Amino acid sequence: MKLIDSFRDKEKVDILLKQIDKLNIKDKEYRFMEVCGTHTMSISRFGLRTLLPENILLISGPGCPVCVTSQGEIDAIFDLVKNNDVIIATYGDLLKVPGSNGENLYILRSMGFDIRVVFSPLDVIEIAKNTDKEVVFLSIGFETTTPPSAGLVKQLVKENIKNVSLFVMNKTMPKVLDFIANQENVMVDGFLCPGHVSAITGERLYEPLVRSGFACVISGFEPVDVLMSVKLLMEQVNKGEFWVENNYGRVVKRNGNELAMKLMYEVFEDSDAYWRGIGVIEGSGLMLRANYKDFDAMEKFNIEVDYSKSLPGCRCGDVLLGRIKPTDCSLFGNRCTPEDPYGPCMVSSEGSCAAYYKYGG
Amino acid sequence: MCLGLPGKVIEIKEFSAIVDIAGTKREVSTMMLAENVEVGDYVMVHVGFAIAKMDPEEAEETLKTIIEYADEID
């Protein structure tokens, strides 16, 4: 697509780098957090950190849904597979996430358990129509991915399909952003706000952050998008004035996608959620509303999650909060690699550790 | 998982559309789109759903603004 080529254009990248250099107050440190796994991947893939002056730091936040899922939930999925005659339908990202005893969905599949990768929640419908077994969809993700899960539930009702349930691990952005902004030891000047989450939520999601004195720029994912967003963040920081700037207007509208938000909240309601490495954040998760509880795998299979579980030595939590760089973890690159990941940030292609390992810092 | 891909609409159905994503044709749900799409429009596709209609003019505007920076630098 010609448009994408233009957003990777070297000449435009050079112009932006000169602009950034002109704006750069060299004895100052600019700390910007990206809260989207795709930003993390793009920044590493295009080597954007190495292009920027050393005093401009891009820090990866808790924007990878796989990475922030609790160990207890991951282990509960494996128990569900092993103890029930079910078909698991999942996005591919979850296949290599290790359980507390080292197993993962790939391994379980090779042992004969029925685990299928889907590209869309709607793919679950076809699986369900062709089996008498229960199909459990691992519903995970933020505001971008949750409305499609809600779309699945609505479709199940419409087609009167009863043999599907959702293992709901979905989370939302507002409360976790608020949590990060109020951390004493997380020093962030601004946020590179997630492009596709914003396409759903709209700009209002970030208004509390700017009121608290953080620069906020909604950004696309191409090198030109990210560098332009860094420049716009620097302008806000230098001025000491903060507002929500939309630098992804080709996709994000001011009010977002109200239809998608409505769909999401028709099917789900806010609940407390446990974030890996962070703990419980009140109202930061989602659960099925009472009238859709028939589709809740947790209730159908009486699943109990032990949220106190963690992987010993894994520092994904510190990585997710920007306290350390992936390379500061002693497991990085030895015990923990994309081929044999120990922690979730190394598993998902959107995880910061995987991005650092593959492309360097 | 959060990856969104731009696709060009090549056929419209009642609640879905066939889009061309970098040469691959896929049926995507349009239940989350409030605005009408026409053949030739671009949409952002995420896990099988069109989540937003893309605005090529807005994209061109961004690129034009960057070229204008060049004058400021010189």
UniProtKB/TrEMBL annotation, chain A:
Domain of life: Bacteria
Sample GO molecular function, one term: carbon monoxide binding
Gene3D superfamilies (alphabetical): 6.10.20.100, HypD, alpha/beta domain 1
Keyword field: Iron, Metal-binding
GO BP terms, alphabetized: protein maturation
Family: Belongs to the HypD family.
NCBIfam families, per database record: hypD
Protein name listed in UniProt: Hydrogenase formation protein HypD
From TrEMBL, chain B:
Domain of life the protein comes from: Bacteria
NCBIfam families documented for this protein: hypC_hupF (TIGR00074)
A UniProt-annotated Pfam family: HupF_HypC
Protein's UniProt name: HypC/HybG/HupF family hydrogenase formation chaperone
InterPro entries given in the database record: Hydgase_assmbl_chp_CS, Hydrogenase_HupF/HypC
Similarity annotation: Belongs to the HupF/HypC family.
GO biological process: protein maturation
Listed GO MF terms: carbon dioxide binding; iron ion binding
